């Protein structure tokens, strides 16, 4: 959103370096420092612009923008549009409304990110269907027709060349589900119980349910939402701890590695996580579920759903749980201790670093949009939480 401004800042920095080089002892330094002052003042000029700092609603100067968490954003119902070097908040046409094809790749033609402008109207893209006035994936199970991998939601399935959802290579179909034909431990065979690999979980740094001299090797992960400070949970099976003197050959726990070693398409694959495989050697392995879906039991469910989105399981909701709403439908609600703000669940904490502490009392400094001055230097007031939080760096 602030790419243009970042580029401008980089250009200014280069000019400063060149200008400083040209300054000689014989030149008047007055002109040089005047130039530096003007460059530094650019940051002040960006205050209140979309993507940059603000204090309250009055500060955001761009039309249809508002101050949220100390930054200016477009108001709900508006989308971002680039106007030359500026960003504007505009209303884009919804599904079924008239539209014009946008040739600038930075711009959307329609409000829904999964819609396109076709024959002058906003319509859902191929492999998407309209549901509740939104474009959602037209999901398929085994043997159903498909045109894209992300439609196949049977775990470890994909859309083959014949446009059918089938089990991936090195998986076999049993009772409508895809099971690996082999588990690949770094050394030896999986630890068995009742002739089946022992299932395990990794919660934070803890490896659960594995016996001694074995560890949990994940084949998939649940993609949580960072703002909840959730501990990522990995699910897998127990493998023997490899001997240190053995040269290990990294491999996927299940399935076949992606054919291009240096590439890993996130829509269908994921970098395999094994504590004995160095980061740079991690193979690209098939996802159990398409990107944006999580594996619960033997099914793939959409995850990171927002408050009000229909759901079936608690694990689908970002910072929330799945419960019946007033209409009797199951929908996501925020967890206790979280507040729904701007369509998402938030707990009252700084997004970056820790809140300011009063050096005399040791208490957290309280603030609001009318008392921004209470915050120390390099802190800004997040009025929604009443906290002085470290300013988030914009320039890198």
Write the layout of secondary structure elements.
Blueprint (H helix, E strand, L loop, with lengths): L2 H20 L6 H18 L18 E4 L2 E4 L4 E5 L2 E5 L24 E4 L2 E4 L3 E4 L2 E4 L19 E3 L5 E3 L3 E4 L2 E4 L11 E2 L2 E2 L1 E5 L2 E3 L5 E8 L11 E8 L28 E3 L12 E3 L6 E4 L2 E4 L17 E5 L5 E5 L4 E3 L2 E3 L32 E4 L4 E4 L6
Antiparallel strand pairs: 1-2, 3-4, 5-6, 7-8, 9-10, 11-12, 13-14, 15-16, 15-18, 17-18, 19-20, 21-22, 23-24, 25-26, 27-28
Structure description:
- The protein is mainly beta and 396 residues long.
- Among the domains are: 180-288, no CATH class; 305-346, no CATH class.
- Helix content is 10%, strand content 29%.
- The chain has helices spanning 3-22, 29-46, and strands at 65-68, 71-74, 79-83, 86-90, 115-118, 121-124, 128-131, 134-137, 157-159, 165-167, 171-174, 177-180, 192-193, 196-197, 199-203, 206-208, 214-221, 233-240, 269-271, 284-286, 293-296, 299-302, 320-324, 330-334, 339-341, 344-346, 379-382, 387-390.
- The strands form 13 sheets. A four-stranded antiparallel beta sheet has the order 16-15-18-17, with no helix packed on it.
- The protein starts with a helix and ends in a 6-residue tail after the last strand.
- Residues 1-42 have low confidence and may be disordered.
């Amino acid at each position: 959103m602030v790419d243009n401004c970042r580029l401008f800042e980089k250009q200014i920095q280069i000019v400063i370096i060149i200008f400083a080089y040209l300054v000689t002892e014989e030149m008047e330094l007055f002109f040089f420092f005047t130039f530096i002052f003007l460059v530094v003042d650019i940051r002040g000029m960006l205050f209140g612009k979309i993507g940059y700092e603000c204090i309250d609603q009055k500060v955001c100067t761009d039309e249809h923008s508002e101050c949220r968490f100390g930054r200016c954003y477009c108001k709900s119902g508006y989308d971002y549009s680039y106007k030359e070097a500026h960003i504007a908040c505009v209303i884009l046409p919804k599904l079924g409304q008239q539209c014009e094809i946008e040739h600038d790749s930075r711009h959307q033609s329609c409000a829904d990110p999964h819609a396109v402008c076709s024959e002058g109207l906003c319509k859902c893209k191929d492999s998407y269907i309209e549901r509740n006035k939104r474009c959602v994936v037209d999901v398929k199970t085994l043997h159903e027709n498909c045109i894209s991998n992300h439609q196949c939601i049977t775990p470890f399935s994909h859309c083959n060349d014949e446009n059918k959802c089938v089990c991936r290579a090195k998986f076999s179909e049993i009772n409508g589900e895809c099971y690996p034909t082999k588990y690949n431990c770094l050394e030896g065979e999986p630890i068995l119980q009742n002739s089946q690999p022992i299932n395990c979980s990794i919660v934070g740094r803890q490896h659960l349910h594995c016996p001694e001299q074995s560890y949990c090797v994940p084949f998939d992960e649940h993609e949580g939402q960072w703002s909840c400070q959730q501990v990522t949970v990995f699910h897998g099976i127990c493998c023997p701890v490899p001997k240190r003197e053995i040269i290990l050959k990294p491999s996927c726990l299940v399935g076949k590695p992606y054919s291009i070693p240096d590439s890993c398409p996130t829509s269908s694959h994921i970098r395999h996580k094994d504590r004995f495989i160095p980061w740079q050697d991690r193979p690209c392995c098939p996802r159990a579920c398409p990107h944006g879906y999580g594996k619960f039991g033997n099914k793939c469910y959409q995850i990171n759903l927002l408050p009000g989105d229909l759901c079936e399981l608690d694990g689908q909701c970002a910072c929330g749980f799945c419960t019946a709403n007033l209409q009797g439908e199951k929908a996501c609600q925020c967890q206790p201790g979280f507040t729904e703000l701007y369509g998402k669940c938030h707990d009252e904490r700084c997004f970056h670093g820790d809140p300011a502490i009063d050096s005399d009392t040791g208490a957290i400094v309280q603030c609001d949009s009318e008392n921004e001055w209470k915050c120390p230097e390099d802190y800004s007031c997040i009025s929604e939480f009443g906290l002085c939080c470290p300013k988030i760096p914009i320039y890198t």
